[in-house]
Amino acid sequence: MQLRIAAIITAFLATTAVASPVEIDSSCTATSYDQIAATKTCTAITIQGPFTVPANSKIDLTGLITGTTITIKRAQKIPLKHNFEFDPFVSAGKITFAKGTLDESNNLVTIGGSDITIDGSNGSFDGSGPVC
């Protein structure tokens, strides 16, 4: 009887000790730099500006799930308070990089994985021009 109980407990522990797979979300949206790292478990990533990447920081989207789509998107246009026209600076939705000490040997954005699709038709990264 003791042998049978030991076998049952061993079998139970073997089935519960198996590593559970990484939970994959279908879509995630990052609207700030701090939210980008959490999107790596998604297969449809939207990075929506406007926001600024802190000085000396980089956007790291390496190790993505195979077949992931990344969309760079600008925010909705925001009407000015008085004349209902659109402010191009508010609606641009750029993702900018704060000035820091990184030089041309540093990649501000790194993307890695298999079969990755990037759609930048509705947004942009602004690296503030060439490093001087």
From TrEMBL:
Keywords: Signal. The keyword Signal applies. This is Uncharacterized protein. InterPro entries: Pectin_lyas_fold. It comes from the Eukaryota. Residues 1-19 form the signal peptide.
